[in-house]
Amino acid sequence: MPQEFEVNTDAAFINPDWENFPLLHEQRYGLAIEYIKHAIKGVAYDNKVMHMVVSDKGFYTQAVNFPAAFYGEICEATLEVIDKEKAHVLIWEAIALYRAGDVQSLTCIYSENQPDVFFGYRIQGDGESQVYELGNLRNQAPLHLRVMVDSKEETELLNHYKGVLIYQQGPKGEHLILKAKGKRQPFPLLDGFSD
Length: 195
What we know:
Oligomer: single chain
Mean pLDDT: 88
Helix content: 10-25%
Low-confidence stretches: 186-195
Radius of gyration: 16 Å
Largest sheet: 7 strands, antiparallel
Order of helices and strands: EHEEEEEHEEEEEE
Strand order of the largest sheet: 6-12-11-10-7-8-9
Shape: globular
Strand content: 35-45%
């Protein structure tokens, strides 16, 4: 397997410069996104709101209506088809972890209608964390959910303290769960290093 690599565009949606967004997004993430897509040639599990491709080298997701929303990893990942009840339990566990502060980001897309989404992102800085939220969490299963766990203790959700869990309703209505353990590496390194 190639070296582990992660591309996460979440940070680009925190108070962006919408006037210059397409150019800045392409400069910051374009090459990395193409690299992930080229490296991960796998099976597509797309639905109405999210492209999801999984292979033995990793996975990526990209929003259908807003392609700038991209997340992908070259890593070991597991994909499982589960029943509706287990899916609902995992979804609510992910939301509970987010509310407890043990999550870097949570994305839920509920329907094709814009903006029927929830995006929550925890920004670390100066020893404190701030939370940025867009939209509302709803009392229903989303078509797509991605939670990036960053906890001090091992979680039941991942049996690890860091990693990503993706829930996706598959093209035939099946309930898919993708899990990947590991270090979370947000992708702002292209902006350079600072003290």
